[in-house]
Amino acid sequence: MERKIRNKIHTYIKDLYSLRVSKEKFICGKTRINYAGRVYDEKEIFNLVDASLDFWLTAGRYAGEFEEKMAKFLGVKSCLLTNSGSSANLLAISALTSPLLKDRQLQAGDEVVTTACGFPTTLNPILQNKLVPVFIDVEMGTYNIRAELIEKAITKETKAIFISHTLGNPVDIDLILRIAKKHKLWFIEDNCDALGSKYKGQYTGTFGDISTCSFYPPHHITMGEGGAVLTDNPLLRRIIMSFRDWGRDCWCESGHDNTCKKRFSQKFGDLPYGYDHKYIYSHIGYNLRVTDMQAAVGCAQLEKLPGFIKARKKNFAFFMKHFRKYDKYLILPEAAVGSGPSWFGFPILVKEGAPFTRNDIVNYLEANKIATRMLFGGNLTKQPAYKNAKYRIFGDLKNTDLVMNNLFWIGVYPGLNHLMLGYMKDTFKGFFSKI
Question: Is this model's pTM higher than 0.90 or not?
Fold first, then answer.
């Protein structure tokens, strides 16, 4: 009987989705073209409703399914879901402060190499854990960290490298891995904007000791809110799970007890012998867990990921083909050597000396209903939040400042159809016809 009711609900969901889609129409110059957004069909809605009908409100069967399938897709041993990409980054860095890592434990004052050009949630966990970010400039075209400068920036306090693949464009992973191995540094990949990108045939997010993903709506797949931490290291997996789950020492899944078979027969700290292992805390952690309803949406999205990646690459190639004619005024993006990016966006930098400014073209595009974005926080050292933060700059941030002043990007997400792409191409043409 319950299955019949669920099937009937599924039919109604499909009909409702079809009705909504029939009302959606794109009108050039009137319908806004977003830089990114959710792309879904009735399957995501059905999964969401199906999970809610179970009324298992925390992580459950869908969360387990997603973690298993995501790990398999990327080719890593462990995927742990969390409530956002920002939380994933916080967990990744916090995990490295665990005393379980012994002589490789990050301590307050240790340095972490990163960039000032990007999104603040790569930087924030470094500062929140009382570590010191070391900022290195980015290269033009890829807007990734200048990897050749990393080794020169290392001091005895440097213990980790934490960088993102800018807008889906992989960093020079070979060089970074050599440096990390030589100097015994942790390497953490912020893969939030690069799910599905490859470096020399291997998915990004599989090279670092830890990597992170975001499932916020603009990203490659979405749960609405959500993120993941990935690793091949069993000890790091255990630590990450502890920090995510209140700092507890126990690894039982929700609804399960005594997985270790020693729940009441161990001694921890100054607690009495046999104190319930479910209430032993080995880290100062958080509750950053995901709900099963979020994971249910993610499971449906994950099935679409290969198609999403293909669409992003196709849309990127469309813009590259039609915008090359403007390279007198613009610096167009460059894929990193040996890479196959799953692009998050199409970055465009207005050359110094061009007869127009970034604001000129951005305002024109926005007035014509085409959404634009800056490269996130620009130069983060100039943001008010970091006015009194402790950090070190190696060399200068000349290119970072140029990005802050002259770069913007437009979307390449799978929700762009041929009418939208054609309108965007024609709008750029209209702007440059006035130059």
Answer: yes
